[in-house]
Hints:
Blueprint: H1 30-46, E1 55-57, E2 67-72, E3 75-85, E4 91-98, E5 101-111, E6 113-119, E7 125-131, H2 133-145, E8 160-162
Amino acid sequence: MKAQKVLLLGDPRLHDVSAPVVPHELPDLQPVIQDLHDILFEFKARFAHYGAFRGIAAPQIGVMKRLIYTHVEDVRRVLINPVLENMSPETFEVWDDCMCFPNLLVRVHRHQSLTVRYQDENGQEQTWSVAGSLSELIQHEYDHLDGILATQRAIDERSFRWRV
């Protein structure tokens, strides 16, 4: 079960800043991308009743590279060296969840919309403009690349609850 590779809350590696992917590393990322895909789908199956788990960042499995994998509405995206741009001043509150603490929810503020510039798995430049829950997803996964967890973004000390 590959999901055992997911680092859990308390693991100090989750707070490390990830290094950029350099072009000669692209071929070496294919097994990592496959692991991210497999782990995401293991979580989707295990926690299907939550309707969550649409993305995962490489640092969550101890690969300290700037790489995000998403699978939303049957569309797979690999975001290498993403950069967030055009973050809206408007924010919204959301109960955030994470594979690193799958039964804990954390109330956070996220930007309503943004554009992410990234390279795909072939090294081609891409942009993706997102809003609402997709904006939240990208911000959450991007935080992992900078060693930031949703627990650090909690609105206040009452912004934690167990998922039941």
